[in-house]
Write a structure and sequence with these properties.
By secondary structure, this protein is α/β, with parallel strands linked by helices. Strands 10-9-8-13-12-11 form a 6-stranded mixed sheet, with helices on one face. Strands 15-14-16-17-19-18 form a 6-stranded mixed sheet, with helices on one face. Strands 4-3-5-7 form a 4-stranded parallel sheet, with no helix packed on it. The longest helix is centred in the first third of the chain and has 30 residues. The model has no long low-confidence stretch (mean pLDDT about 85).
């Protein structure tokens, strides 16, 4: 048996407490002088021995109670023998219908394991080939589960989609080989249709294994490729492959509120120039509204961004806010706060820091006008990573003994503690009677 927190073993000193209480209660009885013992009856020796037995049993149960509590704190575990597999194959579910993968899996011998690259790493079953799950997993988040497999070497067949790489590159002691299947096909998907005067603007996402980009095209509303529904709120587009139906949206102006005090009015021109640059870049109208007095009658939730050039508190609103909050320890002009909708302007704006520290680009990031469109684009992103870009960091730490795994037994001591407490209460009640 091994302990995760062996420091708590010092708590076994507490075993002396019930023993000391038991010995203290064994004090010699007092002698009482009486005139006659004719009316006294002799107590049965069996009853006296039964009382002593109950006291010893209570002492034993209370000692066991303390032992269980201490062992629960130390988190004991034992080594358990497991069936060790020399080689394990892990396949991404979206590849199961690929003929190359099926040919490879058919040649695998029976002394190896085949699993699916998803949460839990389940064993591959025949029904998975007919109904594969096409949800691409988050590769690095599964490395911990992969490392826990009882195997020497691991081979992973994957698409290595760049959109599924999240977080910090993990570390592992396992020998993992990543085999990447590149489809080499170009994927083009229309994400959005926007009405602009007498034209329809289509936003498309184009992706290959090496690059991805957005593309805007304009089609006349009278074009034969377009078919509108009666309400004119959706459009069907004739493409080379099929018909694509999209909701038809209409771009409304972006509303930005700038509240300022006189002592900070010199910042206004620089912010105004940045907003104008963003408007030109996006080819969208941005209504910038200047307010000198505190906005009480305005509906603040209707603004995409509120720039607060004042030291007074910002009113409660669901809109995004850029608050003038100076900080000597910040590294950027704009930094996030504890709230996901509030950002801090950490230094006074100058022409130099607006250009050098990319204030306009940071302002565009805060607006995040195409958040939903980018999320949809991730589904069609076919860019892939190279094996060396995908692989975790290989470490040379002490590996777990082959053929054995650590099995925590804390829950058994919880069960024993509950049982002992019940028995202790029963014995204590019987003693009183």
């Amino acid at each position: 048996m091994f302990f995760f927190n062996p420091t708590y073993l010092w708590a076994f000193i507490g075993l002396s407490i019930p023993i000391a209480i038991h010995l203290w209660s064994k004090k010699q009885g007092k002698t009482i002088k009486i005139g006659s013992i004719a009316l006294l009856s002799e107590s049965e020796s069996k009853q006296s021995s039964r009382i002593q037995l109950n006291e010893l049993l209570l002492l034993f149960l209370r000692i066991l109670t303390i032992c269980c509590v201490v062992l629960i704190l130390t988190k004991p575990y034992v080594k358990r023998k497991i069936n060790h597999i020399p080689l394990t194959y892990i396949v991404e579910a979206s590849l199961l219908q690929d003929q190359k993968i099926q040919s490879i899996l058919d040649t695998i011998t029976t002394n190896t394991s085949i699993r699916i690259l998803e949460d839990g790493l389940p064993e591959l079953k025949p029904e998975n080939f007919s109904n594969p799950d096409h949800n691409v997993p988050k590769y690095w988040q599964l490395v911990k589960e992969i490392e826990a497999l009882p195997t020497d070497s691991i081979v992973i067949f994957t698409k290595a989609s760049i959109s599924r790489i999240k977080g910090k590159r993990p570390k592992t002691q396992k020998h993992i080989s990543w085999i990447i299947f590149d489809s080499n096909t170009e994927n083009k998907e229309i994400l959005k249709a926007v009405k602009k005067e007498n034209k329809i603007q289509l936003l498309s996402f184009n992706s290959t294994s090496t690059h991805a980009f957005f593309q805007k095209t304009h089609i006349s509303s009278n074009d034969s490729k377009l078919t509108f529904n009666p309400k004119k709120d959706s459009v069907t587009i004739v493409t080379q492959d099929n018909l694509k139906q999209l909701p038809l949206s209409e771009e409304i102006p972006i509303k930005v509120l700038l509240y300022y005090n006189e002592d900070l009015s010199n910042q206004m021109n620089l912010i105004k120039a940045s907003i104008k640059t963003i408007s030109t870049y996006l080819n969208r109208t941005i209504d910038l509204e200047f307010v000198k007095k505190k906005p009480r009658d305005l509906s603040l939730d209707t603004y995409s961004l509120i720039i607060w050039l004042s030291k007074s508190p910002v009113p409660q609103t669901s809109s995004k806010q850029l608050v003038y909050n100076l900080s000597d320890f910040s590294n950027q002009l704009i930094e996030p706060s504890s709230s996901s909708t509030t950002f801090n302007l950490t230094r006074p704006l100058t022409i130099e820091n607006v250009v050098d520290e990319h204030f306009t680009e940071q302002l565009l990031t805060i607006l995040d006008l195409d958040h939903n469109t980018r999320k949809r684009a991730e589904r069609y992103d076919t860019r892939t990573l190279k094996p060396e870009e995908l692989a975790p960091i290989k470490t040379n730490g002490k590996q777990q003994s082959l053929g054995y795994t650590n099995f925590e037994i804390t829950h058994w001591f919880w069960f024993a503690l509950l049982l002992i407490l019940i028995l202790e209460r029963i014995v204590a009640k019987f003693k009183k009677q």
